[in-house]
């Protein structure tokens, strides 16, 4: 037997490995598409991580990452903290979020939706103090104008601009739990609220439940801060994922997954096209799988009626007891 040097065996083995590897790779996708798929996979992974906030249910951080916050009518209340709130507990109204918050120390005791002034009558930013409190109050500026017969002729009247007809009257809009912030008409009160939407003539409309709680807490020294964006003391800034809540993070994750699925489909189509081109160049027949044609169902044809013949010497089907008509045995009849 001829001796083969070990070094030669190693060279031959490496050559076989390279040959087998290159022959099995087949068509590859373009580097640009591969880079896009890698980036999309990373985007999906990051979105999935952000979708599961590590905050315990019941905490304020958990609240702001769920419920579609901040555009939600859901009210957050920490009853233990609210019981500790008093006249020195600051209130913040965030115009960007259309949310109100009251603090006890550096913690949020309550967070609720508000509707502030529309673009033509914006709510002014600044720091204010409660100047007046009335549980039952009606606006002396805005309301309805009725004619002499009591029919409403103007549902959104401004008494400084609109004229009351002779014999008619002006009915100011009811503003329960009124808390005045300025003497020229700015205040907080019960009113229609739509999550994330300014609706008022400049006042801060609040849901009745929260307006009642605030009315019981505040005093004439309570400060109300109206800010354009998140207040500096906001404790859940890091809990908001890029300024959005849980539902928004779910939407972003779904979009990332859809993007990745499209790229993978594009890669499959690209590989299929290259494979078809290689087969065509090599002269091999490219087979395309198609759905098999549906088999035709046999048409039932009535069998001809046989003429009666003698049964002697012939094999006849005999139905044993307990067997169905679809199963039978054959036995010769006695002669």
What is the first-to-last residue Cα distance?
Answer: 83 Å
Instruction: Report the strand count.
Output: 15
Classified by CATH, the class of one domain is Mainly Beta
Q: What is the level-2 CATH architecture name of one domain?
A: Beta Barrel
Overall 3D shape:
elongated
CATH-derived topology of one domain: L,D-transpeptidase catalytic domain-like
Q: What share of residues is helical? A: 25-40%
Which structural class fits the helix and strand makeup? Answer: alpha+beta
Report the radius of gyration as a whole number of Å. 41 Å
Question: What's the number of helices?
Answer: 6
Strand content: 15-25%
Poorly predicted runs of 5 or more residues: 17-23, 298-335
Order of helices and strands: HHHEHEEEEEEEEEEEHEHEE
CATH superfamily of one domain: L,D-transpeptidase catalytic domain-like
Strand line-up in the sheet with most strands: 1-4-3-2-13-5
- Overall mean pLDDT: 80
Report the biggest beta sheet as strand number plus sense, adding barrel if it closes: 6 strands, mixed
Quick rundown:
This protein is of the alpha+beta class and 335 residues long. It has six helices and 15 strands.
Give a verbal description of the structure.
This protein has 335 residues and is α+β, with helices and mostly antiparallel strands. The chain has a domain at 60-129 and 186-244: Beta Barrel (L,D-transpeptidase catalytic domain-like). Helices cover 30% and strands 21% of the residues. It contains six helices and 15 strands. A six-stranded mixed beta sheet has the order 1-4-3-2-13-5. α2 (31-51) packs antiparallel against α6. The model is unreliable at 17-23 and 298-335 (pLDDT under 50).
